[in-house]
Write a structure and sequence with these properties.
With 364 residues, this protein is of the alpha+beta class. The chain has 2 domains: 113 residues, no CATH class; 222 residues, 4-Layer Sandwich (Phosphatase 2c, domain 1), CATH 3.60.40. The chain contains 8 helices and 10 strands. It has a 5-stranded antiparallel beta sheet with strand order 1-10-9-6-7. A 5-stranded antiparallel beta sheet has the order 2-3-4-5-8. Helix 1 packs antiparallel against helix 2, helix 3 packs parallel to helix 4 and helix 4 packs across helix 5. It starts with 8 loop residues before the first helix and ends with a strand.
């Protein structure tokens, strides 16, 4: 199929070159004719001066055309780099289209790509803002204060939305449930899965059963969708006021700590995360929680805080931080101090660090 009216970039550049060259050549020929006609002795010197001046003019004009093309190419490259980096503020305006050659077609394609990217970026931003509002509403609903307990909770995300979650669900009869979890990954996918896990948990925990039973049912619901491609770690504590103890089960999550008898005690419960295998029977432990005792649940973002030497804070470092705290403080003061000390270990910067979430309960 024949393409009409299509010029190519190389002939266009060559045409510009010839046009710029034609003017000084024509002037030089005029000078030659005038010089031969006059026959003056100063003609060779005059001819040399004119030829030099014309050469300067020619290369100046051609350099101006080359700089114009260079600026446009640089603008395109900067725009593509901004789109690749996701920097909406650095994306520039449309490229002018004043030619029908390859460069004009490239400018048109760049404008279309940039418009498409801006549209998709703005749509993704609106989705992130909606997800952020949804996550904040879900997490705020989890900041309930069960009777006879003081609860402090904080979730610090390193992106607009993340995969950390926690929830406090009253169950009646002086019973309640506390869940903490961490969805593998970051961004929109983790946020959507986090919301689904919280919705499923609130339904399953009200159906009854022990902490291990609830996690087992959650795993069976999540596995068909996840199948090990991603996973969710979780720790679930069920408090029964009649027994005065916590029924705790974990699914690949960080071991909780209990403050009792003047010291912090790690409660180790080994298990697989949710969504890794279909048939998993989770185990649980009964943890006495007398008045004045505290329970700390947290995500791995605290343990994986990067120190100045490039190593992680780790379990030993985290335990040392806990031992330095004044555990007599109420949860609303103790938890912010703990997180501030963790931040200080990492220089106060999160960067690409993991989300940090913690829930601290005290039986009054």
């Amino acid at each position: 199929m024949k393409r009409r009216g299509l010029r190519t970039f190389v002939p266009s550049l060559l045409t510009a070159y010839l046009l710029l060259l034609a003017l000084p050549v024509a002037l030089l020929l005029v000078c030659l004719r005038v010089g031969y006609a006059s026959g003056g002795s100063a003609f060779p010197t005059l001819l040399f001066i004119v030829a030099g001046a014309l050469a300067v003019v020619f290369f100046g004009l051609f350099g101006g055309v080359a700089r114009r093309f260079r600026r446009r190419f640089r603008r395109m490259i900067d725009g593509m780099n901004a789109m690749a980096a996701g920097d909406r503020a650095a994306v520039q305006g449309r490229m002018p289209i004043d030619a029908g050659d390859e460069f004009g077609r490239l400018s048109r394609a760049f404008n279309e790509l940039q418009a498409y990217w801006i549209e998709r970026n703005d749509a993704a931003l609106r989705e992130l803002q909606l997800s952020d509002r949804l996550q904040r509403r879900l997490l705020t609903a989890g900041r309930q204060q069960p009777d006879g307990f003081a609860v402090a909770a904080e979730c610090r995300q390193t992106r607009e939305v993340g995969g950390d979650l926690y929830d406090v669900v009253p169950l009646g009869d002086n019973r309640f449930a506390v869940l903490i979890g961490d969805v593998a990954g970051k961004g929109m996918q983790a946020a959507l899965l986090m919301s689904a896990v919280m919705a499923l948990f609130r339904r399953e925990v009200r159906l009854g059963g022990s902490a291990a039973d609830v996690l087992t049912r959650l795993n069976r619901l999540l596995y068909p969708a996840l199948r090990g491609r991603t996973y969710v770690t979780a720790g679930l504590a069920l408090y029964d006021g009649r027994a005065g103890e916590i029924d705790y089960a974990g699914a690949g999550h960080m071991p909780p700590y209990v403050w009792a008898d003047g010291a912090w005690h790690e409660i180790a419960v080994a298990s697989l995360p949710l969504g890794v295998m279909e048939d998993v029977s989770y185990r649980e432990r009964a943890i006495p929680l007398p008045p004045g005792a505290k329970l700390l649940l947290y995500t791995d973002g605290l343990i994986e805080t990067t120190l100045a030497d490039g190593t992680f804070l780790g379990f030993d470092g985290f335990a040392a931080l806990l031992a330095e705290l004044d555990a007599a403080q109420p949860p609303q003061e103790l938890l912010p101090e703990l997180l501030a000390r963790v931040d200080a270990c990492g220089g106060g910067a999160t960067g690409e660090a993991d989300d940090r979430t913690a829930v601290l309960l005290e039986r009054l």
